Structures are given as C-alpha cells and as structure tokens.
Amino acid sequence: MNSMDDIDGGADQRLSSPAARRNRQPILEILEAALPPTGTVLEIASGSGEHAIHFAAALSRLEWQPSDPSELARQSIAAWRKEAGLANLRAPLALDVTGRWPAIDNLAAVVCINLLHISPWSASEALFAEAGRALPRGGKLVVYGPFKRGGQHTAASNAQFDADLRARDPGWGIRDLERIEALAVANDLDREQIHALPANNLCVVWRRG
Ligand SMILES: C[S@@+](CC[C@H](N)C(=O)[O-])C[C@H]1O[C@@H](n2cnc3c(N)ncnc32)[C@H](O)[C@@H]1O
Predict the structure, then answer these.
(1) Domain ranges, ordered by start, for the chain
(2) For the chain, does the N or the C end have fewer beta carbons within 10 angstroms?
(3) Is the distance from the beta carbon of residue 3 to the nearest atom of ligand 1 less than 6 Å?
(4) For residue 10, what pLDDT is reported?
(5) pTM of the full predicted structure?
(6) What is the 3-state secondary structure (H, E, C) of 30-92?
(7) Domain at 4-208, CATH class
(8) Which atom number of ligand 1 is nearest to the Cα of residue 119?
(9) For a substitution probing ligand 1, which of 119, 169, 175 has the most ligand atoms within 8 Å of its CB?
C-alpha cells in the first residue's frame, strides 16, 4: 500500500492493500531466514493487517504483534485476525513509532514495512532509537520500502513516487539508505543484509549489537 487512500475497504472492517498482497511473499522469504527462531515480533505500521496474517501463519514458531496508530487500520487488523484464528497472532496495539513503545514480552525482532517514506524524518529517527533501545542483543530490525542509494533514485518510478509524496507532504519522501544507515550505527544496529525486491524496493536487515 502506498497510503491508506489506496486501501480498498470491503463491506466489513477488513481493508485490502493490493501492494501488500504482491510484496508479502518476497518479504516472507527474507523473514524466514532473518528472524530469530523464537520470540515476539513487533510489527510497526501494520496497515490493513494482511502482512501480519500472512507472516503469522507461515512463522508459527514466532508470536506476531501487529500495531498501528490508525483506528481504521487496527479495526482491519482485528477483523482479519478474527477470521484467521491464528494462535500466534496478537491483537493490534495502538502504537505511534514516535512515542514511547510499550514493553513487549520476549521481543526478538521489529518489522517495519512501508512507513519511512510516508512519515516525517522524526519517524525514521524514532524507529531506530526505539528498536535499538528495546531489542535484546542479537535481535533483528527488518525494514522494507523504497530507498535512494548514494543520493540517487534507483528507478524513474521511484523519483516520480518521491515527487508525489513530497507534494502531498513536504516532510515525506524516499529516504537515503546512507542516512538510514547512520541512524542504525548510532543506535547499535549492525547491518546484516540488503535484499533488492520487486518494484524497486529494498528489504534491509539489521542486528542489535
Ligand atoms: C503505507 S501504509 C503501510 C502499511 C503496511 N505496513 C503495508 O505495507 O501495507 C503506512 C502505515 O503507517 C501508519 N503510520 C503512519 N504514521 C505512523 C507513525 N507515526 N507510527 C506508526 N505507524 C504510522 C499508517 O497508519 C499506515 O497504516
């Protein structure tokens, strides 16, 4: 999903994001290898909840904790969760990444998909500061989305998307991976992997040092 505007709501409270349905399997393949064997995964900005359902179903060894500050999103996550009936999928938390995060029992990883470019820079700063604070040693932070590399867009479509985002909100925009990496370093997060995924997106994995 590029924004909540792109979610097609059904007659019930479940929202559906075409982008989430397209990217969930490539992201899952990275999560399967990157996430720790046990523990709780906190998903920031879960949106419709379709990622949470897909990942919790496939990664039954982990507890999945979705979250979103939007009530509409949380209602959607709750509706998908009710239908799925997965024992390892928790009820969604009202969590704004820029606030103090609640304590999560047995936290092993933080996953954040398509937030950093659709939020002010302070959200990126908060994600890395809070993940660095909350994760135990060896815990993982996995971030997915479009990024610039070396100050350059990696595709013309990303440049257009960036212009559209900045027109909607001057504080939004596709981030430089190097600036994000500086946040990681400052918060004791060591980069493990960068995966190039379809549609000019990256999935980046950091490990708490
Ligand atoms: C583009 S959607 C991505 C949703 C989902 N991760 C996906 O990829 O389908 C962005 C989401 O970020 C959430 N969001 C916006 N500001 C946020 C913040 N400060 N903290 C946490 N989530 C936020 C929105 O409510 C929305 O659900």
Answers:
(1) 4-208
(2) C
(3) yes
(4) 47
(5) 0.95
(6) HHHHHCCCCCEEEEECCCCCHHHHHHHHHCCCCEEECECCCHHHHHHHHHHHHHHCCCCECCC
(7) alpha beta
(8) 16
(9) 119
